[in-house]
Design goal:
The structure holds two protein chains of two kinds. Chain A is α+β, with helices and mostly antiparallel strands. Chain A has seven helices and eleven strands. Chain A has helices at residues 26-37, 90-93, 121-125, 147-150, 163-167, 184-192, 237-248; strands at residues 12-17, 45-46, 54-55, 59-68, 75-82, 100-102, 109-111, 131-133, 140-142, 173-177, 208-210. In chain A, the strands form five sheets. A three-stranded mixed sheet of chain A has the order 10-1-11. In chain A, a hairpin with a 6-residue loop joins β8 (131-133) and β9. The termini of chain A are far apart. Helix content of chain B is 68%, strand content 2%. Chain B contains ten helices and one strand, in the order αααααααβααα. Classes of the chains: A alpha+beta, B mainly alpha. The structure holds iron/sulfur cluster (SF4) (3 copies).
């Protein structure tokens, strides 16, 4: 059914720390790897080694430059973006076939690929660009929150989290239940002022983004400067002659 | 938005077809026999041709039947249901008209109402999208319905209705264009709200996620056609409204009636092309494009 559940038992999602993300794209690669080999149709590439490569990804990392108002140095912020598993997911309600749905038990938004007709309307309805039509398969692909990892008892316990979270070398991605105020992710969000993307679109995203911490300012703290005042102003004697001669050459 | 040919064809042709069906349905003196057959054949060819064209852009057209299942929430599904209901009801109505010369008016009225509902559902597929501020207005539905009725009146030879509806359509179209030009900035969605970084300062897209293109960029970030938008708007108005009215005002001749229809349809194509080409999806912000 493409009507949305009024509430879900859990709100599983990601918390992405914009302060620590170093923009290495490791999550992009691990996401592509895991989701090509597991749940649903593989994520295809078109012309991967040619002049105009193109392909399906469920997670992409943008980079933005922010120029603070107070004139201090511009900041470069790496910005990973995957499905935000919205509570009011417009992508689900527009789906004519029922292929798109939001799970009652954990709030994950999924596509049942054998029902998808590839009309693309859900991608039109998502403001975040989190859905991509696979060009080889003709079905809609999106982040599954690695549903085939997080409950997978065949994996060692430490691997039962999304591939992108597991792989991030900077610890910039966190996974958990954002519906539980006592979960680690909820505490992190509360502590760091986690925010919604495009709140005005009314999608109520579950995923939260932690804003970059304010940067330090370089104050005038050069305590050695007085001791390093230049000693000789103008060279005299032989050096002075050498200096002038060399200048004339 | 990428102006896909299949969708432009679909919305224009089926709009016209359902518009014609609506007029045939409420006609107190509906055509019977051969004349009736030709009218209904044209209407069905347009409506079904449009619907068929719309399946060309599907990744899996063989599963299209599933699209009738989610009418409780999805406008696209509702459109499918409404279209089939219209075609069935009007089919029965046409059958008795053509073969028995018998007009079952109540069926005609129901069919006409369904035809208008169908055009409305089509328009809502676009008008519901908050992500495309230009479309996200009730005026979109008004425009689609008015154009369908005007085209239908034109095709069924209702000169007075056609002229009046064309004038109204022109007014809605111009207002829709004008309001559309500022709707994106009025929507309040900006790169600052998209990234949440606006509180720090001015945000600029520095690097895209990849050097090439992707599905989102091809589908949503169409900037090529906008350069000539003003000229194309003028062309659309002349073809869609101006020339047809002129032809209708000339002393009646079948040639002029035909020219009026052809010109109108060409104008609707241009207008629909602009409908997509000029529409900006908010996801473009993430890529520093609109
Ligand atoms: S981010 Fe997009 S695809 Fe994911 S739930 Fe929200 S609207 Fe749907
Ligand atoms: S592309 Fe598939 S999942 Fe998306 S709206 Fe169409 S049928 Fe539903
Ligand atoms: S949760 Fe899984 S599918 Fe989603 S972005 Fe991370 S790796 Fe990709």
């Amino acid at each position: 059914m493409t009507t949305l559940p009024t509430s879900t038992e859990k709100k599983l999602g990601l918390v992405i720390d914009l302060d620590t993300c170093v923009g290495c794209h490791a999550c992009v690669v691990s996401c592509k790897g895991w989701n090509t080999e597991n749940y649903g149709a593989p994520l295809s590439d078109q012309d991967p080694y040619g002049a105009a490569p193109k392909g399906t990804f469920l997670n992409r990392v943008h980079s933005y430059e922010v120029q603070p108002e107070n004139g201090s140095a511009a900041q470069l912020i790496h910005f990973p973006k995957s499905c935000l598993h919205c509570e009011d997911a417009p992508c689900v309600t527009v789906c004519p076939t029922g292929a798109s749905y939001k799970r009652v038990e954990d709030g994950i938004v999924l596509v049942n690929e054998s029902d998808c007709i590839g009309c693309g309307l859900c991608a039109w309805a998502c403001p975040y660009g989190a859905r991509e039509m696979d060009q080889a398969e003709g079905v809609m692909k999106k982040c599954t929150l690695c549903v085939d990892r997080i409950y997978n008892e065949n994996l060692p316990e430490e691997d039962r989290q999304p591939a992108c979270v597991r792989t991030c070398p900077a610890g910039a991605r966190h996974f958990g239940d954002l519906g539980d105020p006592d979960s680690d992710v909820s505490k992190l969000v509360a502590e760091r002022g986690g925010m919604d993307l495009m709140p005005e679109q009314g999608t109520k995203p579950v995923n939260k983004y932690l804003p970059p911490r304010p940067k330090d300012k370089i104050e005038e703290i050069d305590i050695l400067a007085p001791f390093l005042a230049p000693v000789a102003e103008e060279p005299k004697g032989f050096l002075g002659w050498l200096d002038k001669t060399l200048e004339r050459l | 938005m990428h102006p896909a040919r299949s969708i432009i064809l679909f919305t224009s042709l089926s709009g016209l077809g359902f518009g014609l069906l609506a007029w045939l349905g409420i006609d107190g003196d509906a055509p019977t026999g051969w004349v009736g057959f030709i009218f209904f054949a044209i209407a069905y060819a347009l409506a079904c041709g449009g619907l068929m064209a719309s399946t060309f852009h599907l990744g899996h057209p063989e599963r299209a039947i599933k699209a009738f299942s989610q009418w409780r929430s999805s406008w696209l599904s509702r459109e499918g249901v409404a279209a089939v209901a219209t075609l069935v009801v009007m089919g029965v109505y046409a059958f008795f008209l053509v073969f028995f010369g018998l007009q079952i008016s109540i069926l005609g009225w129901i069919g006409a109402a369904l035809a208008i509902v169908t055009v409305y559902t089509t328009s809502m597929i676009y008008a519901q999208l908050k992500t495309v501020p230009r479309w996200n207005t009730p005026l979109t539905s008004a425009l689609f319905i008015c154009l369908a009725l005007a085209g239908g009146a034109l095709l069924s030879g209702r000169v007075l209705f056609a002229i009046n509806l064309l004038v109204i359509a022109a007014i809605i179209q111009v207002i829709w264009w004008q309001q559309g030009d500022t709707r994106f900035s009025e929507s309040g969605t900006t790169l600052a709200s998209a990234t949440g970084l606006g509180s720090i300062g001015k945000v600029r897209a520095f690097e895209p996620p990849h050097t090439g293109t992707n599905y989102l960029m091809d589908e949503f970030m169409h900037v090529v056609g906008r350069k000539h938008a003003q000229k194309l708007r003028a062309i659309a108005l002349v073809l869609m409204i101006g020339l047809p009215i002129l032809f209708l005002l000339l002393p009646f001749a079948h040639l002029f009636a035909l020219l009026a229809v052809v010109s109108h349809l060409a104008g609707v194509f241009v207008s629909r092309w602009l409908f997509f080409a000029e529409a900006e999806h908010v996801v473009g912000l993430y890529y520093g494009k609109r």
